[in-house]
Amino acid sequence: MTEPRKINPWLKSALEFGPLVLFFVTFMRMRDKTVTLGGTEYSGFIFATLVFIPVLVLTTLALWRLTGKLSPMQIATLVLVIVFGGLSVWLNDPRFFKMKPTIIYLIFAGLLGLSLVLRKNWLGLVMSEALPMSAQGWHILTQRMAVLFLGLAVANEIVWRSMSETAWVNFKTFGLPLLMVVFFVLNSKLFERHALPKDGE
């Protein structure tokens, strides 16, 4: 198996989070405006989506070119952004793009749940390089992450269906990543308790 090539962590972060930041900035500048393209009027949200899609494609391809590898989540995100973002632009309907995080999180919750049923360590295959842990540790983390993704899917549905577009964009840009960070911080004891010994220990 080919090892991913190392790149500057700042460059990696810029490529991973840059498209989302650009979407946020574009939306905030255009949210009260309309843009006419090809004789059709688009809201600021749809225009921000239209900007976001090709930028995400380019940055994902750049990551793949620089590292030689993409994670399953990056691939799934790219495909669903193209599909659901493309539908939002094509049909001039923001609901499809807002549903995209729900679909992503349900897919991952389902895959993690299936791995538990089949007694397979799929999460460990993806994350073991960053978090070397025992089989028991991966089993516990898989259970917790399945619940996390299910909860995030429900939260996304509640926010986009009951709140304003600005509230959803803020939730998407800052709330969802923050919840993921908090989740891993709260599980730090699990990582310590089930960490595999390093070479020489």
Automatic annotation (TrEMBL):
Highest taxon in the source lineage: Bacteria
Q: Give any Gene Ontology cellular component.
A: plasma membrane
Annotated membrane-spanning segments are 13-30, 42-64, 70-90, 102-118, 138-155, 167-186
Q: Which UniProt keywords apply?
A: Cell inner membrane, Cell membrane, Membrane, Transmembrane, Transmembrane helix
The answer to whether the entry has keyword Membrane is: yes
Q: How does it sit in the membrane?
A: Multi-pass membrane protein
Q: Among its keywords, does the record have Membrane?
A: yes
Q: Which InterPro entries match?
A: YciB
Q: List where in the cell it is found.
A: Cell inner membrane
The family assignment reads: Belongs to the YciB family.
Q: Which HAMAP family match?
A: YciB
Q: What does this protein do?
A: Plays a role in cell envelope biogenesis, maintenance of cell envelope integrity and membrane homeostasis.
Name under which the protein is recorded: Inner membrane-spanning protein YciB
Source organism lineage? Bacteria, Pseudomonadati, Pseudomonadota, Alphaproteobacteria, Rhodobacterales
